[in-house]
Write a structure and sequence with these properties.
It comes from Paracoccus aminophilus JCM 7686. The protein is mainly alpha-helical. The protein is built from 10 helices and no strands. The chain is globular, with a radius of gyration of 20 Å.
């Protein structure tokens, strides 16, 4: 009996991930309002009742995706260490954010769609936990500046600029590839360009 319970648990976990993957595809392409449970079920190759067995509503699926995404998105900023080399800590953060854009473009577009809609699900987090995390890291950057280890920059806008200059490559990838043309890797080129940009900006 124990083996059967474990087997069911593995199947249930697999089905939940299939549903979340299908929902990510639909939400990132259509937005929350434009996505239905029927579309998610079709994308997941499951019946609608089966989807609703695992998740009570479209809203629950959406919130689950956003919570997982936010954990993923915030991890690189949380890893910035006061004891590290300031320029390297910031460059490493930039690179981690660019890598997330390369590896998780659908997640980035899902996040962008949520923000464009006024952050109905993430609003409390953006004004709470995220704001506090950014404030903590901005204070750390301010200390580096005061110690003469970085050029004088606005710490908040430095962090925001990293978001803008990395997530853009996921959210507007089609446009970027069209402009650059075939045979060029936007993410590799961006990595080199942004490293030089921030090294020059932060040099004291």
């Amino acid at each position: 009996m124990t083996g059967q319970v474990k087997q069911r648990s593995r199947i249930q976990q697999k089905n939940r991930q299939v549903i979340l993957g299908a929902a990510l595809q639909e939400f990132s392409a259509r937005g929350f309002a434009g996505t239905t449970i029927d579309q998610i079920a079709e994308q997941a190759a499951l019946s609608k009742p089966n989807v609703l067995y695992y998740f009570a509503s479209k809203e629950e699926i959406y919130r689950q995706l956003l919570e997982e995404l936010l954990d993923l998105w915030l991890a690189p900023l949380q890893r910035m260490e006061a004891g590290g080399d300031p320029k390297q800590e910031i460059i490493s953060y930039m690179r981690a954010k660019l890598q997330l854009s390369r590896d998780f473009p659908r997640e980035s577009r899902l996040f962008a769609n949520e923000i464009l809609q006024g952050a109905p699900q993430l609003g409390p987090i953006l004004g709470g936990a995220l704001r506090q995390l950014v404030a903590d890291k901005a204070e750390m950057i301010s200390r580096w500046i005061a110690q003469g280890r970085l050029a004088v920059v606005d710490p908040h806008h430095l962090i925001i600029s990293i978001w803008a200059l990395t997530q853009h490559y996921a959210d507007f990838e089609t446009q970027i590839r069209a402009v650059l043309g075939a045979g060029r890797d936007p993410f590799s080129e961006a990595d080199s360009f942004l490293e030089e940009l921030y090294c020059r900006l932060l040099a004291n």
